[in-house]
Amino acid sequence: MIPHREIAPAKLNLALHVRGKRPDGRHDIETVFAFCVDGDRLSGEAADTLSLEVKGPFAGELGPSESNLVIRAAEALRDAAGVKQGAALVLDKRLPVASGLGGGSADAAAALRLLTSMWTIDPSHAQAVAPQLGSDVPACLLSLPARGEGAGDQLSPVDLSDLSGAAVLLVNPRVPLSTAEVFAGWDGEDRGPLTDWRHGRNDLEQAAIRQAPLVTTVLAWLSAQRGASFVRMSGSGATCFALFENDAQRDQSATAVPREWWHLATSLR
Ligand SMILES: C[C@@](CO)(OP(=O)(O)O)[C@H](O)COP(=O)(O)OP(=O)(O)OC[C@H]1O[C@@H](n2ccc(N)nc2=O)[C@H](O)[C@@H]1O
Ligand SMILES: Nc1ncnc2c1ncn2[C@@H]1O[C@H](COP(=O)(O)OP(=O)(O)O)[C@@H](O)[C@H]1O
């Protein structure tokens, strides 16, 4: 039988403004989500029970499969849709864990898409369970450019068609950062709404830098690259990215990334 396959695209926050703390303990944000063509890879075959095998370069950084967001997403979808079948899932973990690329959220969203197709259920079930799995999961379910408000789960379309196919270089100094801890380190100052992502900010940058000073080094390194037209940290870090004028300049910089850092040369969807 041919397995079902899904890419779990790496998520970027082109800008991320933190506006305040919410009664539920999370933060109100305004962000613009964009997605890369590359990411983790999920495949699955029909089975009686739910199971997950994790392989790939970052498999060793994840805990037991039962706590993996892929299994949590699969269980939530199975319960919501009243499905009796299972699935044998395999996750190829290619994105660093706790890196601001939404890896866990992207994997959960990929599981929802894959199982909606495999179990031939209505997509409304996936849309219903997505926000319960993580603030980023609704955006990752779409994996299309969007503006996010509220906790990041209130989505509206944004036209980034001029960026489709744009060359991107992702660089992570191999320092995992906890999203909760970075938000907890936000200084509490509302610096204003997000109107234009190019002239916006990442309000989590200073909190991330306090926990991972290497973020400053990565941002400076990317900014010094020839052809890098836009440089910012993504999400709660520590991954930073640069948009390049063309693929050749991106590839040239990719060859020069210090060996101790992780990088991915990719493009925007
Ligand atoms: C910061 C962002 C930006 O896209 O991405 P990442 O850095 O995780 O990729 C997201 O808001 C992360 O979304 P997600 O990773 O789904 O977070 P969740 O599981 O919902 O929340 C984890 C924890 O982060 C904090 N949190 C998350 C979202 C939010 N709007 N405010 C928060 O304060 C809370 O402490 C929460 O308990
Ligand atoms: N499939 C998964 N991929 C990544 N992290 C996962 C996954 N399942 C559970 N987690 C947990 O989620 C946390 C990090 O989530 P992740 O989405 O990678 O963060 P970020 O969005 O900042 O990259 C880690 O504590 C990790 O153990």
Question: What this model shows, in words?
Answer:
The chain has 269 residues and is of the alpha+beta class. It has two domains: 153 residues, Ribosomal Protein S5, domain 2, CATH 3.30.230.10; 106 residues, GHMP kinase, C-terminal domain (Alpha-Beta Plaits, 2-Layer Sandwich), CATH 3.30.70. Helix content is 29%, strand content 31%. The chain contains eight helices and ten strands. Strands 1, 2, 3, 4, 5 and 6 form a six-stranded mixed sheet that branches. A four-stranded antiparallel sheet has the order 8-9-7-10, covered by helices on one side. Helix 2 runs antiparallel to helix 3. The longest helix has 16 residues. The protein is globular. 47% of the residues are buried. The mean pLDDT is 97. It binds 4-diphosphocytidyl-2-C-methyl-D-erythritol 2-phosphate and adenosine-5'-diphosphate. The site of adenosine-5'-diphosphate has 18 residues, from helix 1 and helix 2.
Please summarize what this structure is.
By secondary structure, the chain is an alpha+beta fold. The protein has helices at residues 69-81, 103-118, 123-133, 137-142, 179-184, 205-211, 214-223, 247-256, and strands at 4-21, 27-47, 50-55, 86-92, 146-149, 154-157, 167-172, 228-233, 240-244, 262-267.
